[in-house]
Design goal:
- The complex is a heterotrimer of chains A (167), B (239) and C (1006).
- Chain A has 167 residues and is mainly alpha-helical.
- Chain A has nine helices and four strands.
- With 239 residues, chain B is mainly alpha-helical.
- The longest helix of chain B is centred in the C-terminal third of the chain and has 18 residues.
- Chain B starts with 6 loop residues before the first strand and ends with a strand.
- In chain C, a hairpin with a 4-residue loop joins strand 46 and strand 47.
- The mean pLDDT of chain C is 95.
- Classes of the chains: A mainly alpha (167), B mainly alpha (239), C alpha/beta (1006).
- Chains B and C meet through strand 1, helix 2, helix 3 and helix 6 of B and strand 20, helix 21, strand 44 and strand 47 of C.
- Strand 1 of chain A pairs parallel with strand 4 of chain B.
Chain lengths: 167, 239, 1006
Amino acid sequence: MFYAVLEGLRRFKIPHSFKFVSIITLYARWIREGRLKVDPSWNKEGLKVTVQDPCKLVRQGLGDQVAEDLRFVIKAVVGEENFVDVYPNMSNNYCCGGGGGSIQAGFREKRMRFGRYKFEQVAKTGADIVVTPCHNCHTQLIDLGTYYKGKFKAVHLWNLITKALVR
Amino acid sequence: MAEMAPLLITPETRPKLREIFEKELSFVNLDLCLTCGMCASGCPASGIDGLDPRKFLRLIMFGADEKILSSQWIWVCTLCDRCRYVCPMNINIARMVYRIRGMVPKEKRPPNLQRSCELQKKTNSTGIPNEDFVWVVNDVLEEARQEPGWEDLKAPIDKKGAEYYLNQNAKEPTVEPEEMVHLWKILHVVGIDWTYSSKWWDGANYCLFTGDPEDWEYTLRKQVETIEELGCKYYINTE
Amino acid sequence: MGAGSVLVVGGGIAGVQAALDLAAGGFYVHLLERGPAIGGVMAQLDKTFPTNDCSMCILSPKLVEVGRDLNINLLTLSEILEVSGEPGNFKVRIRKNPRYVDESKCIACGQCAEKCPKKVPNEFDRGLSQRKAIYLLYPQAVPLKYAIDPRHCIWLKKPGRCGFCAKVCPAGAINFEDQPQELELEVGAIILAPGFETYDPTPLENFGYRRLPYVMTAHEFERLLSASGPTRGELIRLSDGRIPRKIAWIQCVGSRDINRAKVPYCSSVCCMYALKQALIAKEHIKGPFEAAIFYMDMRTMGKGFEAYLERARREGVRLLRSRVHTILPAEEGLLLHYVDEKGNLKDESFDMVVLSVGLKPHPTLPSLSQVLSAPQDEFGFLETRLLENRPGVFVCGVGAGPKDIPETVVEASAAAARVENLLAEARHTETREKTYPPERFVFPEAPRIGVFICHCGINIASVVDVEAVTTFARELPDVVYAGHNLFTCAQDTINRIVATIKERQLNRVVIAACTPRTHEPLFQETLRAAGLNPFLFEMANIRDQDSWVHPDDPERATQKAKELVLMAVNRVRLKRPVPLATIKVRRAALVVGGGLSGMQAALSLANQGFEVALVEKSQELGGFARRLFREVYGKPLKVLAEELAAKVASHPRIDVRLGVTISNVEGSVGNFRTTLSDGNVIEHGVVIIATGARPYLPQGRFAFGYGEDKRVKTLLEIDELLERKDPLLKELRQAVFIQCVGSRNEEHPYCSRVCCTHTMEQIIKLKEINPELEIFVLYRDIRTFGKKEILYQKARELGAVFIRYTPERMPQVETKEGLKVLVFDEILKRDLVFEPNLLILANGIVPDAASRELAQFYKCATTSEGFMLEAHLKLRPVDFATEGVFMAGLCHYPKFAEESLSQALAAAARAATVLAKEDLPAESLVAQVDPRRCTACGQCVALCPYHAPSLEEVRPFGLVSVINPSLCKGCGNCAAACRCGAIQVKNLEEEPVLAAVEGSFGRIWY
């Protein structure tokens, strides 16, 4: 959990000599620097891709900057024209309902009700794929897709990057 | 909602939650609420259990502590902070919910969530032994190297002095181990020097949600110690 | 040198009002404006609340007055570089940036802008339309002169590249070589009226501004409604041209937000402008229309505002006490997701959303503040203490904090009063007066008419055959001269007209041009300059009423122009010289009421050098202010009142009369004779009424146990407890306030404005004394407008809990078995029961019955509630419709002591515009009675809005109507109604009117 570390280091004032960074930031930096070469041409079918901005990473974590990086990476690996954004997004994104321990906590029906906005929002984009860079979001989006009979598939960002990888 | 009996607010009603948020956590701005409803209109949990963020604040203000402590809503709320994002008074509801969760006796909390945290405090959130993690990583790595072009793929564990320390959400080694390979490949192509560790390797941390800051702090300190021992410059996880 | 001059910075309504008052009060004014024209934000507004007057229509006459005032030096495109010196003797260095258009030559024909190829966003329309690089800020701009925007002009960027404007300008006014000029002014005082900007909601991305189509700011919406706006007032969505049939307003965007907008104060005006925009939008759209306002507290605390709110409600404007987290896109519109009054989540789509953006300090304030060493407050506004920022530097308007137009106008006049106090001795030392040659006696001469026909650039001449009209005019009887000019109003043409009048010995003049509304005074002055009586003049409007309406039919337009000219010639022939009327001024003032306002007004006038009589019915000065426990300008109000009373009592020019009332009044502006109850008579030129008001006594439905239980008290009673630090206060454990006691109900259908804020002040003091005290406030809307919002925030910080109630479900108070208060919490939908030790009723302010009687003495009106009625709610907030009578303080409307003090100063400034003069100009074309024909029917007396006629015994005619020329405005109501034809308005008798009618049929009346 990205936020557990980011906020924990701050709140408990834990001394440390390392730097804590998001892998999303690094993906974006590596692509920009040319260290990570990607090519979206694998997406011949023109699969439409949207994104779930994790609350803890974006709104509570690194803000819109990391959300911009996230979009930059997705566009680079699936093709700019294949990316469809959600509205609202980035720091004002809807929580999917998978956070806060709700997946472990039980009461699935309430969790599904919580996620109805997220489902509608993603479904409205018509996307085939929703990128979920957070594990809770990932599980929740899969569950929402099943529960509300969505057509989208939830994937981790690394799945798409490796598809586009150029060596 | 059905009409309920009047809430009696006499000089003797001394709301405990309200006092905590006013005295110990005054930065949550509880008292500043204008009851404008922006939070309630933007919260996906609004309406669940007949509550919403604004009613939650109101109940605290009027000292209905019991109703809140016994409500499932404090666990339905995902602490996502979308309410505060637009709140004109910057009221930190998530922080209040977190604090209230911690006031619920452990045995009354959602059992699976509490169990995940307890396990995490021992080893990791799923409770698999550390040796199993090491074994799964090496096993998957071996298989991945069979793929042409990836013969020299690496997944180092406990490599001292590696530049990057990576932790792995326990979901992958336990449920979908092949997912780990994707990230390894990316790191390999970029060519960075990275390592896992064989202890405190779990990137998930459910102690973030149970309401006991000391548990959260404990697990995080363990991770920090591990990284410091390995001497890595950067700490990354899979998010 | 310099002490008789004043620098006013900012050409919005605040600066304009201050400049006009100062100039009328005998001071020379430099009015500095950073833009190319004055008018400010008010010029951009469509209609204004609560009168729904057209903003431009009520502002424009003031702007024109500024443009024409000999004692106002208008410095546009100017900024202050440096200020040195001290009060009475400032030196100000100013840079006047180039306009690149010679103001003395530009005739505003608009040909330059037509040819200019460079289009840029039009800031006056908030970027919703485009203008050219050479432009007129808006059609009624003062000065009415084009300007080149150097940021966009092609020639100025690359000389030799374009220059079309210079080629087409018929006046040769374009000057690409224009350079910035530095000037140094010597002034005695400085008034800052720098204005504001509206909040830019782009960073609050949840509202979707600049992200979603159909989301716009209220400032933009104002332009969309305006007839001079991007759609000429047609209310459509600019992106798709469709009519929005359902519009939502979102309140508090960039106000009352300490989180992301970081604007903690309330902007004061948005609730009212949203109501107004909703009502006006409804008027604009034919067919079905729905308006909804999403708000936190509906703040309609000004005079006439609550009635306006009720009107909006009646007309179907939905008011939703609910805010919206995020505006969402929807098919062909926008989707709002909100919690309704029942507590349910609701989705509703709208065609358009208007963001009610707040007011922010103008971005130029930091540099202005630095140049002037004028400190800013924590929000970035200029600091003030009774309008003073630092010695000799005064601030008025929104530059000092958010406020509406009436308050701004009051402050502007008040700032003028403070300057006049400071510089009293230099009055009239630097002003100029226009002088004219003696009037030629034309009575015995036969009519010699001159006709001057205007091309108005191409405005008239492109449609009307001006040459043909001239030839036609030349052949009319008695016309000895007829000619035509490209621009009759240009200075060189004016000079030629003067010469022509003299050479040709003209004794009647007709100008066929534009409208008398803007140009008649200019041409009348031209006649005076040529030694002719200004009433021997007629205008024919062949532009607005001819060429503009018949552009497609030049032939008949030309025919119509001839007829219009004939009408004017027929009529002017019959006109007689009328002497310019004046009134001799008795340069002394009467102030009625010895409270805070009365004392402040008296003191200001006395310090300005005028004699003042101050009449107070009680035996003591100080009034209501002695009973309130609050701080004003860092001093207990009571102390402030006592200090003022001491100054007033010892002032050599103030004659204090205690224990007396007014028993009779005679006369009118300039010459009043007021008889006191003790028989003494006071002669005065002006009167200021400051008779105060009373606190509401809780009773009937609004008693809430008052009088039954000693623990139920009013705000004033709590003031007494706080004042004497009553030990009871330390023992309290729970206190409950009930707001709006005696306000906003059928009996008193207005908001008392001050109770919410005073409640906050009391909460803060109570919590200081007793931090453990629990406080609950039962309210309808909290109305801590402007910076007073900080007190509300502070009260909440201290733990006071605010619970809203609705008039349908009033709080219940039980006193039989201990004190119990029951209220329904609208959020939890649940009853709450309190057992307080103290129940405080925030009781309102009600008018004093004696006010109505007093108003009648001075022929003034009161509102239906019984407060004094001003001449105009927006722009004449301290003047009565009756000239020479002014008002201040609570008799006008409930208000704060600070506001009463400002209003008293404003009344003093307005009064000084009369007292500063020996003679007052009066209406010359007044009605007169032929006593031989009058039957004393009394119709004229009943009809006259100015109380000019009265029935009097006149020998040898008996009882007849007598019209007081100093009260008559020449409106003609009486003349039209007089059944025996006894009343005629000078030069508007029957014959000239018939002559004009004949002319309209092409017949000569000779």
